Amino acid sequence: MESTESSYVSSPEAPRKRSPPPPKSPTSDSVEKPTYIRFLVSNAAAGSVIGKGGATISDFQLQSRARIQLSRNYEFFPGTSDRIIMISGTFDDVIKAVELILAKLLSELHTEDGVDVDPRTKVRLIVPNSSCGSIIGRGGSIIKSFIEESQAGIKISPLDNNFYGLNDRLVTLTGTLEEQIRAIDLILSKLFEDPHYSQTMHAPFSYAVAYNSMNHGANGAGGKFENNKEDRTNSVTIGVADEHIGLVVGRGGRNIMEISQVSGARIKISDRGDFMSGTNDRKITITGSQRAIRAAEGMIMQKVAYASERGAD
């Protein structure tokens, strides 16, 4: 996976000889269909996007008409120390909001560094693994054309196997603001056509909550581990709403057995009627190494997020 350094790193850039024409947005008959994009920002950059009392993010939402959400200050993308920004709305509104945010972060770099030239920066998009094929293309043909057309560097990271159940990859774009926006436009145009991509729109931060709940608790019931040794056996109990237990367990116990096998953790679910104190949440006790517990908890919370979304439809 990419290093955990800040997503926005200034570096000098040689002047470009030409500027390619802007990419074509989706056709007008589908342009009102909602879409989304997610990318990473450092904690400091997130504060800049939010602004004093939320003024900046409110202004950006007003200007773009897109919805802008941030993960909380302890909810990072697994394996990084960066928070997640999700922008949703129509295609054009999403692109407008991305441009406002990246321009804001670029202006902060200028202010801090006193640099007049347009530096090449990095932004890391989060793309579901199932949708990466659509932007790579056969033999890498699509991603090569995107690099040529946008003149931005585009690199897709492999899946990080340290986090079982993580189904997202990072796509790193390197270039000027104009090149990055052009690359994002091209990439989102292709993702816009992918039915798998739209299905992941409604649970943007589920893994962020799960993988980082070790220090903050899940539903107020998670354990805080004082010993950081990965191989030490620990136990944590989380609460899951009674109506969602069926999906977590699966038919004939298939889901819970798979989660246990993949994560290496032992998982025990309380009997019917045995709830977390003062709630209607069943107890799920996960035992194993910290890594195994993180993995199991992440997969359980993904099932819960899916069940919650399905119930809201």
From TrEMBL:
InterPro entries: KH_dom, KH_dom_type_1, KH_dom_type_1_sf
Alphabetically ordered keywords of this record: Repeat, RNA-binding
SMART domains attached to this UniProt entry: KH
TM region(s), chain numbering: none
Domain K Homology: 33-106, 119-192, 232-305
Residue span of region Disordered: 1-31
Entry protein name: K Homology domain-containing protein
